[in-house]
Design a protein that fits this description.
Helix content is about 35%, strand content about 30%. The chain has about 400 residues and is of the alpha/beta class. It has 2 domains: about 100 residues, NAD(P)-binding Rossmann-like Domain (Rossmann fold, 3-Layer(aba) Sandwich), CATH 3.40.50; about 220 residues, Dihydrodipicolinate Reductase, domain 2 (2-Layer Sandwich), CATH 3.30.360.
């Protein structure tokens, strides 16, 4: 029987805790959050759960809270990752999060190199497992890409394309943290090009793509994300020498954010306004509506009406098999906003990422992946990947896959 602490019980953390409470192999769940009311709002509804207040910026408090646990699930922004990983090592507890962190002193690529070397050695030396970037993107996308690569003798390209087409009449530009969304959208982008990791500017390389089930072509742009970096670093070890990797994003939120960037509103540099120093990003975040969190808030948005409730998530992998070029196309099949709310009383964003993260957590809690060290999802072995996809299908997330042989 396992004891698990979930640090941060927002949209993803709460979904993870609810799913863990159904698992017979889990005896206790600690719901930890700086907001004690939020911790109790979740923990008091789960038979196995205990709610505690936790200031995750104080590593000593995290260490104390994690004592006796088998796994720390980090549901907080990436700024907390390093401290909570340190706490996991100090308390000899396995660790999982949903996105890798960036050490600003060395940059994104070097941060991942450090995780794959130094942090991997430290977790392995303690006989612990750390799984990072274990949500939907990164997470689900990485597993699907690896599964597709396994069908090939060699891999040429991996393209991950995420279209978020949910737009409400009640102005709701972001369905997850605006702070995280805008930071990512104003950041540099990374891709793998001819075997090298390349850095580019935000909103680079716009293309028009046609997705299955979507009437119009969608403008997609390169977007700051983990997958091109991790896949570029692991190309020769687990992805059969992939030469090109891209992550593209599109939809109304992207269009809005690109215009805000052009206006200078995503800048962290202070500007003078009538004798007062103002940081544009901080000012903007005071104006942007918070994403809906509670069922009554989501219901109000749906009742007012939706302009769009569509989306597409595609992982396309090209490579060689038996001397022939093939393309494996994967589309994630998951509910949109209205269906997610009708069935689960949450948003489509909370459903997709939360269910993926919950299954990764269950995989670790049930010892379906026990290799020691630090890993990202594309490094999972055959058994762990199968468990993840099988369990995810039970949650209502499946894959529509086609394999086509190319003649040119």
């Amino acid at each position: 029987m396992k004891k698990i602490i979930v640090v941060g019980v927002g949209a993803q953390g709460s979904t993870i805790a609810k799913r863990l409470s159904e698992d017979l192999n889990i005896s206790e769940i600690i719901c930890a959050d700086y907001d004690l009311k939020a911790a109790h709002a979740l923990g008091d509804t789960l038979d196995k759960a205990t709610a505690i207040q936790l200031d995750a910026s104080d590593i000593k408090k995290v260490i104390e809270a994690a004592k006796g646990c088998d796994l720390i699930v980090n549901g907080l922004p990436v700024d907390f990752n390093e401290a909570i990983m340190e706490a996991a090592l100090e308390t000899n507890v396995n660790y999982m999060d949903m996105a890798g962190y960036v050490d600003d002193d060395i940059g994104f690529v070097e941060s991942y190199k450090k995780m794959f070397s130094d942090w991997n050695k430290r977790f392995k030396a303690k006989h612990l497992t750390a799984l990072i970037g274990a949500g939907s993107t990164p997470g689900f996308a990485n597993v699907v890409a690896r599964e597709s690569v396994e069908k090939m003798d060699s891999c040429e390209s991996i393209d991950i394309n995420a279209y978020e087409g949910v737009w409400a009449k009640k102005f709701t530009p972001f369905w997850w943290s605006p702070e995280v969304a805008l930071e990512d959208m104003g950041n540099v982008t990374y891709r793998v090009e001819n075997g090298e990791i390349v850095e580019d500017h935000a909103y680079s390389r716009p293309v028009m793509l046609k997705f299955k089930g979507i009437e119009k072509e969608i403008r997609m742009v390169d977007h700051f994300h983990d997958e091109p970096v991790t896949m570029g670093l692991l190309a020769d070890t687990v992805l059969k020498g992939v030469k090109n990797v891209a992550f593209r994003y599109g939809g109304p939120t992207v269009d809005l954010s690109e215009n805000l960037l052009k206006l200078g509103m995503l800048s962290e540099e202070p500007v003078d306004y009538k004798g007062t120093r103002v940081i544009p990003m901080e000012f903007l975040l005071q104006l942007i509506p918070r994403p809906p969190k509670h069922p009554d808030e989501i219901q109000a948005i749906i009742d007012e009406g939706l302009e769009l409730d569509e989306g597409a998530f595609q992982v396309r992998v090209e490579g060689m098999k038996d001397g022939k070029k093939i393309v494996v196309d994967n589309y994630a099949i998951a509910p949109g906003l209205v269906e997610s709310f009708e069935k689960y009383k949450i948003t489509q964003e909370s459903f997709f990422t939360g269910q993926c993260a919950a299954v990764f957590t269950k995989m670790m809690a049930n010892d379906k992946f026990t290799e020691k060290g630090l890993f990202v999802p594309e490094q999972l072995n055959d058994e762990a990947r199968k468990y993840f996809l099988d369990e995810l299908a039970k949650c209502g997330v499946t894959i529509d896959q086609t394999i086509e042989e190319l003649t040119n």
